[in-house]
Structure prediction request, 470 residues.
Amino acid sequence: MGPPTIRSGDEAQDRADGAGETPRITELSTWTIVRRVALPATASFMLNTCFNLIDAYFVGQLGTDAMASLSSASIVTWMLYSLGSLGQVGGQAFVSQAIGARDAVLERRAVLAALALHAVTAVLVLTPLFFLCGRIFEAMHLAPAVALGAQSYLRPFAAGMLVYLPGMVAMAAFHARGDTRTPALVLAAALSVNALLDPLLIFGAGPIPALGLYGAGLATAFCKVLFSLSLVVILHRRGILDFTFWKADRAMGALIRKIAAVGFPIAVNGMFFSGVYLALVRIISGFGTVPVATLGIVHRIENLGWFACTGFSVAGAALAGQLMGAGRRDEARRKVWRLTLCLSGILLLVSAVYVLFGGAMVSVFTEDSAVVAEGIRYLTIIAIFEALMGWETMFEEALGAVGTPGPALAVSTPLTLLRIPASWLFAVHLDFGVSAVWWVISASTALKGLSLALCFSFGRWRKKAGSLAG
Prediction:
């Protein structure tokens, strides 16, 4: 007799959870997936964004130079988060497809393999970064005070990432199962601690000295470590992280390499994405400190739309991966598109918020009128293309989940790299000013969204033999 059939709707999910089976979301309606997976994931990423917003709020009180330091350091932290895609995307793809194929052994072995991959990667990358970060900011041609502040923030942050990178795999394991609520609750607790530590360590109190930007990095690092360790413990208690499935053999080594191969294109694309901003900061720094500070502030505000994109893309990846594992590829395409259209509607509302309230939002982080004016211009420009940013994130994650991450390199990376010469051409050579950089960033995002949509809709993954769980 074959495996029990999972019935559609919330009742089926509740039965699966109550029976101790790995939950599947393949039979749920689009609205149920939005409510039970996408929205909690959106809340989770919104809370994660609040780490940066809290830092920005308190650091902004130290002055424009301090905010420029935080903005510059954030570019490097984006690179570290992108590095996390190596095991996060690959692990989620294997876990979700194993769930779709009802292969509990592969599911648990994939979690262990992805954790091992990230633990090694964290040590190899973060150790030299800790000692060499000063040279990175020197290469960006920042003002000496700004470069020193960025270095002060990044060093404790990088130390915390030694634990947070494996924690990203733990979060991906929950997401692959369609459980986005648990990481959101744990993150909310960690964020509460961060909100208390930030002002205490930045400005000092009593016997605690004022640590400035170093204190901001230290507070964030501590809370990310707390978040990661908590998720790992919960995974273990629920039996998802089961060390009895670990075998240091060729099969495990092969699985680690396969997970890395799936995550590699998206990780490299993300690294290029962040690296491009190193070059863009060098271009816009020629126009003064104001646009550098503006870039950091607007990127934090833009997270209003970004966390919706990432939340829905988590749901889309889990759905696509589970359906791929179950051999239902056409259904995967249809259901991911339905989620994408729901996301597009939300992002249109976000665009309206940027246009109507952009000045007030920028003013939360700075009283500098020049930064506020530049921020309004930036937000108005990105509002035009906001919905297509959702397409980029949704289809990149979905392609990774079905085991076809190649378009992230073949399509997204060239368009991302194009931002450097295009920004220099329009902003500097043709003398259109720094606003031209904002236009280049936004237009390239739109092209990436459209291109990845075509890759997902008509790509070879719909016809290739087998799946990752096969």
User: Anything to note?
Assistant: The CA atoms of residues 183 and 229 lie 12 Å apart. Confidence is low (pLDDT under 50) at residues 1-20.
